[in-house]
Amino acid sequence: MLPAYFLIFIIYYPAVAIPQASSWFPSLSEHLWPSRSLYVASGNSINYNPNGSSFLWLPQDSYSGQTFFDLWDFFTGADPTNGQVNYVNETVARQTGLVYVQDNGIVIMKADNTTSLASGVYRNSVRISSQAQYNTGLFILDLNRAPWGCAVWPAFWTVGGNWPYDGEVDIIEGVHDNEHNQVAWHTAPGCTLDTTANFTGTISSSDGVNHTDCNAFINSNSGCGMTEWSRASYGPYFDSQGGGVFAMKWDENSIAIWSFYRVAIPKDVIAGTPNPSGWGAPSAVLEPSDCNLGQLFANHSIVFDITLCGDWAGNSYATSGCPGTCEQRLMDPANFQNASWSINSLKVYRKVLLSARVTNSVTSKLTMEFTTLYLMILLGGLLL
Ligand SMILES: *[C@@H]1O[C@H](CO)[C@@H](O)[C@H](O)[C@H]1NC(C)=O
Ligand SMILES: *[C@@H]1O[C@H](CO)[C@@H](O)[C@H](O)[C@H]1NC(C)=O
Ligand SMILES: *[C@@H]1O[C@H](CO)[C@@H](O)[C@H](O)[C@H]1NC(C)=O
Ligand SMILES: *[C@@H]1O[C@H](CO)[C@@H](O)[C@H](O)[C@H]1NC(C)=O
Ligand SMILES: *[C@@H]1O[C@H](CO)[C@@H](O)[C@H](O)[C@H]1NC(C)=O
Ligand SMILES: *[C@@H]1O[C@H](CO)[C@@H](O)[C@H](O)[C@H]1NC(C)=O
Ligand SMILES: *[C@@H]1O[C@H](CO)[C@@H](O)[C@H](O)[C@H]1NC(C)=O
Which GO terms describe its biological process (predicted)? Predict the structure, then answer.
């Protein structure tokens, strides 16, 4: 009997520890209170830093449904990546149906797929940036479709205001009818990928050069990056199997990206209590070993865009297997049938340390451990 009871207490140890921590340290209570019962019930949302301190990813911002577009700015300048698009403002985007929210809450953003254009005329499209800025976080995008097709070059990314000194993280990016998502980072000089890190993708390369140096000033700004192994991480198969979830975790320990098919989205993600430590190796990761993350990434907005032709889709068009030229491709709206984002939600979580104060002193950490042990023995004894 005795070992069985102890086993139960050991399993529930995290659930016992959280309310204790919050009542000992009132400053954490406000964060924990609204969803405390959820965390206690699931018990598996506690994450650990390499130094053993524990933390939770707690909800910070949620972008979804009818209010989605209230929290973004529409970019209306010339495309910095030389795409042949007119980025329109919110009024025009709404009036011409480039952005809208369906009655079921699904958010749509698209390039114009209804207007026939004369040769050389740019096509209308959208590029939006979050008003909120972030300096770490766990970003979870649930989408049904990402844009693709000949001449199309979409991206979902985060970027700081002083490019490239504040860094850039490209979470979803591809061109034409590619099938493999390309994750990339662009930074100031002095940041490289750790190729021995644990990730499932392959190092991206072009013209025989591996993209391991994130320096935006070399290699025509290829940055550093990893290409996902799955043929359904971008393009036709990603869309046809119902999309899925992309997650980007940015903290002092790494910047890591995961993607999940719709049928394989982890339960903790669906429950809103994400715990990346249970997701397996990421598709792509930038480790602090060869990159000063704290110095090179700051004040990021989240960006969605759909550009056409330009530095990547234009320059690669001739070798892509797509018909004609990129300029010709722009003219017929039917070519942009699949150039749309369909988004269920974007949720941002922030890291809240549980044991920050406890670990300030070894003594108080030990006090907490012994108190818990004492409770276990006491309760175990009572039950016997
Ligand atoms: C442990 O690491 C986290 C970040 O990973 C940091 O915030 C915390 O202060 C560290 N704790 C100690 C005791 O070093
Ligand atoms: C949006 O763009 C249109 C077309 O360029 C312009 O006429 C209109 O004034 C703009 N609206 C706002 C609110 O900026
Ligand atoms: C590029 O990386 C691959 C492994 O991902 C390696 O086999 C190859 O030698 C590298 N090429 C260069 C030029 O470093
Ligand atoms: C890589 O990650 C997987 C999944 O988290 C883990 O099982 C494996 O031990 C890790 N390998 C290394 C070398 O860290
Ligand atoms: C980030 O933004 C804050 C507030 O606007 C500012 O004080 C800080 O200097 C910025 N940091 C960087 C590295 O740009
Ligand atoms: C759009 O996607 C459908 C379904 O995969 C495909 O049959 C069609 O050719 C695509 N259209 C374009 C213009 O790429
Ligand atoms: C244009 O895109 C929207 C959003 O994806 C889609 O519902 C519609 O069917 C498309 N229209 C054409 C003509 O491709």
Answer: glucan catabolic process
